[in-house]
Amino acid sequence: MWDLLARSLEASTVFVFAALGELVNQRAGTLNVGLEGLMLFGGTAAFIAARLTASYLAALAAAVAVGTVLGLAHGFFSITLRGDQVVSGMGLWILSFGLTTYLGSPFTGPLGLPRMAGAFGLSPFVYAGVALVVVSAVVLFRTGAGLAIRSVGENPLAAEASGVPVGLTRYLCVVWGGVLGALGGAVYTLSYNPVWTYNFLMGWGFVSLALVFFSMWNPWILLAGATLFGIMWQLSLSPELVLPGVLSRYIWRTVPFAVTIPILVVISTPWFRSRWGLARPEALGRPFAPD
Amino acid sequence: MIVGRYQVALQPRQTRSASSAALAALLAIALALVLASALFASSEAGVLAGYRVVFSYAFFNPHGAAATAHRAVYLLLCTYAFLLPLRAGLWNIGLPGQVYAGALAAFAVPLALGMSREAAGGWPPGVVIALMALAAAASGAAVGSLAGALRARLQVNEILVTMMLNSILFWLVSFMIKEGGPLMGATAEGESFTLPAALRAPLVAGLPVTAALGAAGALLIDPVLARTALGYRIRAFGENPQAARYGGISPLALSLLVFAVGGASAGLAGYHTFAAIPGLYKIPGNYGFYGDLSFYGLITALIARGSALAAVPIAVLLAGLSLGARFAQGMLRLPFGVDYALLGLLMMTFVASHILDRFRVVWRRVPAGVLRPAAGTRRG
Prior knowledge:
The complex is a heterodimer of chains A (291) and B (380). Chain A has 291 residues and is mostly helical. Helix content of chain A is 71%, strand content 1%. A two-stranded antiparallel ribbon of chain A has the order 1-2. The interface between A and B is large, with 43 and 50 residues.
């Protein structure tokens, strides 16, 4: 049972990394629907670097570098050029899907490095994920920098009038989102499931994106949601541990996705919106055009 | 940015001409091909020989040209599935899911009619074929409509919903065709049963009848959007949903309509690729490959700037390129995924060309005095 819970927490960690970065850049008003692409590229870059150098540190550095570049690219299109953020995010996703298939293909197979061990049989990433949630919550709600981030996501014009550099703040957040998204992919390929196959994520990034909406842009709720989804994800992979012989394993695989839709519906109802909807950053997805 | 004596800046375009859109589209494809040459540079044959293999197989080899035509129809039907909602300002990225839904429904028809998997009997084949195509369209429409209805009624993000449906349908296909699933083939090789010869879509000049649907879409969609009241409503809703609602346009009806028609088109694409193309006539174990290919439809619609007619040559070109790239991959011993890499590069160059379509590059000469550093003033 502990094994199942440990695997679930490892899965939750992938969600935490990816969704937390997206949460921060959405708090600053920029939407990046290409999260799956960030994870694919980060995970593939980390895997290739680990295979070539046998160093986890080099692998993480590769993911950070890729995440930075992709975050900057999304920032340039959506912040500097004020382009459609959905077009840019979709571009990131399909670009990553296409290129990682080709670039990762020669490395198809297991990673072949000794697993990173942490306390209680959990990888260090699990603890790093929880620490990131704590730091994000403190920074967002208890510091001047957090106030600046939230203000450019709510009312960029007022933020600029009070001396907050809107463009720079959004750039930093979108790059941070890119880095954490790529690291989310790296956690997947280095720790959770260290085997590279074509399109290995199969929807993790989009579920992470949905988690940001479920969390009402609050890191603590995100942590709880990611934990629940991690458990659900793991159970969908190993249903025989709980309900042996009930339904086909393929039907179980649909569960996390099938559960996501009703939750999305609930958080979109007028009742929910009137009660909690104010949590949504007011300027989310809207380019800042002071002129 | 200062270049020599000039300042270079991007200025938003007030108006966009058809010629600039066409130029941007051509530029996107050309640039993607230039970037893709890096994929062939690693092979011993070199770039030019690599492209010669791609084009000669896709357009001049009888087998390759036929495959290109079949794939072009598939991509076109997927293009319409994305294009119609896009014109209403909605993103249907549920193409793979709707393709799978169409394929499953089509293959379920003969069994639902009590036929055996090996032979068609009891019903006129023409009726069964028509029912299969109708079931595919209805099934794709139902899956698409769910996303459309949720978007219109509750503002649920349609990108997330369609993506979730893609994953649900993907696993549902596995359930149906593998490990004793209802549509599994007799040989139990993780694929569906093969359609009996009598239930295969008739061919006209080597192309299945579904090609007529691709052609009809190319001829009808643009005029409907440009010249009818319904088309005006779709475009108005896409340009400004609030104003459209104020003008009496029903968001629910419109979202449902574009997603249902779009979904039906993707469902028919599923019917076309699994039940109508010679040589397949089953849902194979690697059905995910065909589902992923549907995203070429998304790119085609974007590069064609939402025009169904302009999408035709682009779909033919991309169908040929993706097939030729896969052929070259085997022939030149390149890593797997050249066709997917091309898809990614096309998306990147489209986003770049999108910038050129939205902005003008403006060069301004900077006065010499501004460029020279100011001389320090000495206090006397």
